[in-house]
Amino acid sequence: MQEQLKQLQLEALEKIQAANDLKSLNEIRVSYLGKKGPITEVLRGMGKLSAEERPLMGALANEVRESIATSISAKQEGLDEAAIEEKLAAETIDVTLPGRPVRTGNHHPITSVIEEIEDLFLNMGYSVEEGPEVETDYFNFEALNLPKGHPARDMQDSFYITEETLLRTHTSPVQARTMQKFKGQGPVKIICPGKVYRRDNDDATHSHQFTQIEGLVIDENISMSDLKGTLEVFAKKMFGEEREIRLRPSFFPFTEPSVEVDVSCFVCGGNGCSVCKRTGWIEILGAGMVHPNVLEMAGFDSKKYSGFAFGMGPERIAMLKYGIDDIRHFYTNDMRFLKQFKRA
């Protein structure tokens, strides 16, 4: 039995040294140290030994097991190190190679224009107000001097959800809500950016969803000259210090008087070109003095307070500012288009 154990030890140690991968090494461990291994088989014959020989054989068997286990552990450590070295050699990184550039995102041109306009008016003392895009008929129309059945409602073909609920057709409801919040006490000085919705056929210059920025100022002794001065500052900051504006009579139900506002063409300097249709002027927004009915419905005394309001489309501003010829470019998510507007 002693010879058998010694022979098994020598065989196992030779196989362990010859093993060249972890799988083979594990098979050797199971083969020699497992419950069905040859060492266990030898020990089953210990019952035939005398009482004096059994302790000696038990000690020898434990010594053989420990020798094999120690050899397996040492071999496994060597194989692990070799595997790591091999992996490192295969995955060597050439640190002298140039790094891959990290692509960074950039602002959408409409977002850039909105933020530029917001910054301009914030510096002029305005605050930014927002409101719900799903609006009530009252705030979208009635509070703005557009009672039910008013013909001017046809100017804004609307998406109605119920008879009294719709997707807002302009950001003017934010003005109405803000005026009510002030409870008839001025001053009010706000701009209202946001999405609006109208039933329109999408083409190069129209979309069923677009953005607006409207402004509102209410205080004592506000006049048309305050409106004109404000819009002159806006035009010069957005389109260049040489720009001039002109006001043309128009009609909006919530302002009286109402005007369309043109800016001198920044392409030809007012001499006439294809951009301004040979007129030297480009229409950029609508404006006017807040209608007394609108003031009264919001709780303001129209004999004490007056105000002006204006509204513009950031898409149109962006198209003019950057020479974009189709509004659909803003919504098709073409990266070739969007990458042209990276900020410095």
Automatic annotation (TrEMBL):
Q: How is the cofactor bound?
A: Binds 2 magnesium ions per tetramer.
Where does this one sit in the cell? Cytoplasm
Report the GO terms under cellular component: cytoplasm
The residues the record assigns to binding Mg(2+) are 256
Catalysis performed (reactions): tRNA(Phe) + L-phenylalanine + ATP = L-phenylalanyl-tRNA(Phe) + AMP + diphosphate + H(+)
- What is the required cofactor set for this protein? Mg(2+)
Domain Aminoacyl-transfer RNA synthetases class-II family profile, first and last residues per copy: 111-340
Q: Which domain of life is it from?
A: Bacteria
Q: Does the keyword Nucleotide-binding apply?
A: yes
Which keywords describe this protein according to UniProt?
Aminoacyl-tRNA synthetase, ATP-binding, Cytoplasm, Ligase, Magnesium, Metal-binding, Nucleotide-binding, Protein biosynthesis
Indicate yes or no for the key word Nucleotidyltransferase: no
**Which CDD domains does the entry mention?**
PheRS_alpha_core
* GO MF entry, a single one: catalytic activity, acting on a protein
Name the EC number(s): 6.1.1.20
Q: Which GO terms describe its biological process?
A: phenylalanyl-tRNA aminoacylation
Q: Which family does it belong to?
A: Belongs to the class-II aminoacyl-tRNA synthetase family. Phe-tRNA synthetase alpha subunit type 1 subfamily.
Q: How does it assemble?
A: Tetramer of two alpha and two beta subunits.
- Spell out the protein name for this chain: Phenylalanine--tRNA ligase alpha subunit
Question: Native species of this protein?
Answer: Metabacillus indicus (Bacillus indicus)
Taxonomic lineage is: Bacteria, Bacillati, Bacillota, Bacilli, Bacillales
